[in-house]
C-alpha cells in the first residue's frame, strides 16, 4: 500500500469514522471496532467455541488450537487433512507448486480475473516458476468445452469459486461438474480457489463436502465470509497437504504463535458458517430492492450484477465518479446514521466514467427490509445530487 500524505490520512480516518459510526449497515466492516473491543469480543465468543484454559500454540503445534482448527476445517470440507496458512496467497502458491511437481507440468489453467493473476504481483511465475494459460477471458468461469480446447498441455486447472472480479459469479452445478470432468479428461488435477467457498452451498444446493469433493485440493479463507482476523487453509489428501506444509515453512509461514488468528477462525466456523445461507437469501432481497429503486429513479444508467446474487455479495455499477459516490456514502452515514455503501472503485478495464461497489450482506443487514433499502438508496441519491455531480450526467431511465 502506498504511503499516504497528511490529507490522505485525514480523509481515510474521516471515512473510517463515518462507516464505523453508522447505526445501521448491511455488514460490519473489518475495522469496525477498536482493538480493545475486538479483543474483548474474541475472548467472549472464543470461550463458547474453544477451551481457553489450554495453552497458546507454538509454531502451530498439532495438539493446540491451530491443530484443532485444521481438524475442524478438514471435517467441514470432508477432506483427509487441512493445513493452516497465514495467507491465502501463500496457501495457493504452495498448493500449485506441489501439484506442478507431482504432475510434472508447470502450466496452470486459470481465469485471467483470478486472484493469483490480478492481485499477487506475478508471484506464481516469479516465486514458483509456474506458467499460466487462460481457458477463457469471458467474465465467468470456463466451460467444459473451453477447458478441452486449451491449445497447450496443463497439469492443473484452478477454479475460483465464486469468481469475485466478475461479480461473485458461480456456474451451475452441472456446469461445474462438466468443467471438472473436462480437466480430468486431460489428465489434469483440479484446485479450487475457494476463498469464499463457504457461501456457495445455497447456489449449488450441495454441502461443502460435496463441493470440495470435486477438487483435488481446496483453499479457503477464514476472514472472508467468516469474520476472522486473517488466515487460510489448504485442504485435501494428507500427502499433498503435508507437502504444502513443508513449503509453508520455506515461504516463512511457520509463525511462532498464531492462536489469536486461529481462535477467531474457530469462532467463525462455529458462529458465522451456519448463518451464511441466511445472508445469501437476504442478499437476494437487497439486490431486488436496489434494482427496483434504481428502475424508479432518474439515474441514466445502472447495473446490479448478477441480477440475482449467487452469494451474499454482488456488484452495483453507477455512471458517476468514485470520489463523488464515496463522499455521498460517507455523508449519508455521518448525517443519517445509515451506511448503504462504503468506498467505490473504478475496476481495471471498466469503461471510463463508471464506478462499482461490492455490496456485502451479513448479520447486520438481516434487519433491513426491502423498504429500508429503497429509503436508504433514495437518501443516498439526495446526497449525490447535492454534490453537483448529477447535472453532469443528465437523467433518464436505467435498466440492468
Automatic annotation (TrEMBL):
Leader peptide range in chain numbering: none
SUPFAM superfamilies, alphabetized: PLP-dependent transferases
Transmembrane parts of this sequence: none
Record has Zinc as a keyword: no
Cofactor(s) recorded in Swiss-Prot or TrEMBL: pyridoxal 5'-phosphate
Cross-referenced InterPro entries: ArAA_b-elim_lyase/Thr_aldolase, PyrdxlP-dep_Trfase, PyrdxlP-dep_Trfase_major, PyrdxlP-dep_Trfase_small
Superkingdom assignment: Bacteria
Protein name, entry field: Threonine aldolase
The species this protein was found in: Streptomyces bathyalis
Amino acid at each position: 500500500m502506498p504511503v499516504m500524505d497528511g490529507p490522505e490520512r485525514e480523509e481515510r480516518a474521516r471515512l473510517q469514522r463515518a462507516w464505523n459510526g453508522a447505526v445501521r449497515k448491511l455488514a460490519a466492516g473489518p475495522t469496525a471496532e477498536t482493538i480493545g473491543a475486538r479483543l474483548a469480543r474474541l475472548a467472549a465468543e472464543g470461550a463458547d467455541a474453544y477451551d481457553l484454559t489450554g495453552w497458546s500454540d507454538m509454531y502451530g503445534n498439532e495438539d493446540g488450537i491451530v491443530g484443532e482448527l485444521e481438524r475442524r476445517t478438514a471435517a467441514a470440507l470432508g477432506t483427509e487433512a487441512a493445513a493452516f496458512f497465514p495467507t491465502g496467497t501463500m496457501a495457493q502458491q504452495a498448493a500449485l507448486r506441489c501439484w506442478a511437481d507431482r504432475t510434472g507440468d508447470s502450466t496452470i489453467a486459470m481465469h485471467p480475473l483470478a486472484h493469483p493473476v490480478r492481485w499477487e504481483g506475478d508471484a506464481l511465475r516469479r516465486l514458483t516458476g509456474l506458467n499460466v494459460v487462460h481457458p477463457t477471458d469471458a467474465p465467468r468461469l470456463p466451460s467444459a468445452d473451453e477447458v478441452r480446447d486449451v491449445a497447450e498441455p496443463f497439469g492443473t486447472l484452478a477454479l475460483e469459486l465464486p469468481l469475485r472480479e466478475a461479480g461473485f459469479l458461480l456456474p451451475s452445478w452441472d456446469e461445474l461438474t462438466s468443467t471438472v470432468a473436462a480437466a480430468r479428461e486431460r489428465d489434469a488435477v483440479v484446485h479450487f480457489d475457494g476463498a469464499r467457498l463457504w457461501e456457495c452451498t445455497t447456489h449449488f444446493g450441495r454441502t461443502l463436502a460435496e463441493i470440495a469433493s470435486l477438487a483435488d485440493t481446496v483453499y479457503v479463507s477464514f476472514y472472508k465470509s467468516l469474520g476472522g482476523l486473517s488466515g487460510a487453509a489448504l485442504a485435501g489428501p494428507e500427502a499433498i497437504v503435508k507437502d504444502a506444509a513443508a513449503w509453508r515453512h520455506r515461504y516463512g509461514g511457520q509463525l511462532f504463535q498464531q492462536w489469536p488468528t486461529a481462535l477467531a477462525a474457530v469462532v467463525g466456523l462455529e458462529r458465522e458458517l451456519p448463518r451464511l445461507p441466511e445472508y445469501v437469501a437476504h442478499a437476494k432481497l437487497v439486490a431486488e430492492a436496489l434494482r427496483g429503486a434504481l428502475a424508479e429513479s432518474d439515474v441514466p444508467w445502472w447495473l446490479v450484477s448478477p441480477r440475482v446474487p449467487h452469494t451474499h455479495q454482488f456488484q452495483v455499477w453507477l455512471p458517476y465518479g468514485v470520489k463523488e459516490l464515496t463522499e455521498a456514502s460517507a455523508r449519508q452515514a455521518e448525517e443519517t446514521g445509515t451506511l448503504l455503501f462504503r468506498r467505490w472503485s473504478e475496476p481495471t478495464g471498466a469503461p471510463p466514467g463508471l464506478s462499482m461497489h461490492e455490496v456485502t450482506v451479513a448479520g447486520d443487514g438481516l434487519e433491513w427490509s426491502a423498504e429500508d433499502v429503497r429509503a436508504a438508496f433514495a437518501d443516498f441519491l439526495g446526497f449525490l445530487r447535492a454534490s453537483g455531480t448529477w447535472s453532469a450526467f443528465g437523467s433518464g431511465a436505467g435498466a440492468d
